[in-house]
Amino acid sequence: MSLRPASSHLLSTSILALALVGCGDDGTAGSESETDGATGSTGASGSATDGGTDTDAGTDTDAGTGTDTGTDTEGDDPSPFDGEPLPDGGIGEWIWVEFPDAFCRDGSNAGIAVRYGLENKLMFFFEGGGACFNTLSCTANPSSVGDFESFKNGTGVQGIMNPDNPDNPVGEWSVVYVPYCTGDVHSGESPDTSVPGVSGTQQFVGYSNVEAFLERVYPTFKDAEHVLVTGVSAGGFGAALNYDRIADNWKGEVTLIDDSGPPMADAYMPACLQEQWRSLWKMNVPLECTDCFQDDGGGLSNLVRYIGEKHSDSVLALISSEEDEVIRFFFGFGGNDCNTLLPQMDPALFKEGLYDLRDNGLKAGGMWGSFIHTGSQHTWIGDNGLYSAETGGMLLIDWITDILVRDPQHVAP
């Protein structure tokens, strides 16, 4: 299998028109059994404190450190995830674990890449790579996972997954890398689905896949002191959409960092587009988020307030550029009541929507932070540019480090 590059901000606008949300990391595909740690492919739910001011949003309380996964010593485990633990692997070495009950859009098997770390902490990383909901978008979106060897020597050691950079606050954490090959931003529960203009049936089962992964990931890392749920682009949306059930199961700290998956209000992320996604993918959104379900198909932006209020003691965060060219293309399909011929959202409108999300969403409930950068770059944490990116006088890597010690801030130009 192959993993796609974690950062694609160098793509031209013309390539974006073919690549849609060409946002993610390398996909990986498995070739040997999971029991020997062999190679393979990658592809993959009341506000206590305000999200903070534009300079300092939270309090500084150390989340703690650990050295191994340990065993559960705190009584009955409430989690429904009780499958076989993942196979052993060497510290710092990527292994591929294929799942017979997880599938890509084309029906091939999916799985996860796993790297064990020295600390008793875990990062879930959701890969990006577009979406499939019409002929153009499906043509560009990967339908299977890719080459594992390329991943583990490329994306798997870059950006926030770089284990050797001393500035990386999660460099010694264990990592579960969830590849993306389902075209549904890791949110679908709709197998054997037809898309007009696209040959064959599509397996939009990203959310179901994560269920299968959690069956084994949770027993392996259930005693992790801190879990970071993150991802880029489609994986940023996926991290937010899967955060609730992950946070519901782990006893320790569970933090969200959504890179370039901004769930904007309906005025900016049109309801007709949201309705397409819901209809095709059977997008799984927590039923308790009643405001997420509007009669016209909109309301997904209300997930921000829902998880902020439900998980009010958890730190949640968003990274985005003011004029992200890829997400503008993605949201542009909603233009002219989803009948646009040239999908591309106006940069000024996107910027307005982003600050609306920050001011009326992130700051409305929960312990949210945000890092907004000038320009149109798409995704930030997947390559080594992470360590030099700066806005408002703050380095992005320092902002992330603060997020992980419960000091979220809203940083903008």
Could you please describe the fold and organization of this structure?
- The protein is α/β, with parallel strands linked by helices.
- It has one domain (13-411).
- The chain is 25% helix and 17% strand.
- The chain has eleven helices and 13 strands.
- The protein has helices spanning 13-19, 135-140, 148-153, 206-221, 234-249, 271-281, 303-310, 325-332, 335-338, 347-360, 396-404, and strands at residues 94-103, 109-115, 121-126, 174-178, 190-194, 201-204, 226-232, 253-259, 315-321, 367-373, 390-391, 394-395, 410-411.
- The strands form three sheets. A nine-stranded mixed beta sheet has the order 1-2-4-3-7-8-9-10-13, sandwiched between helices. It has a two-stranded antiparallel sheet with strand order 5-6.
- A hairpin with a 2-residue loop joins strand 11 and strand 12 (394-395).
- It starts with 12 loop residues before the first helix and ends with a strand.
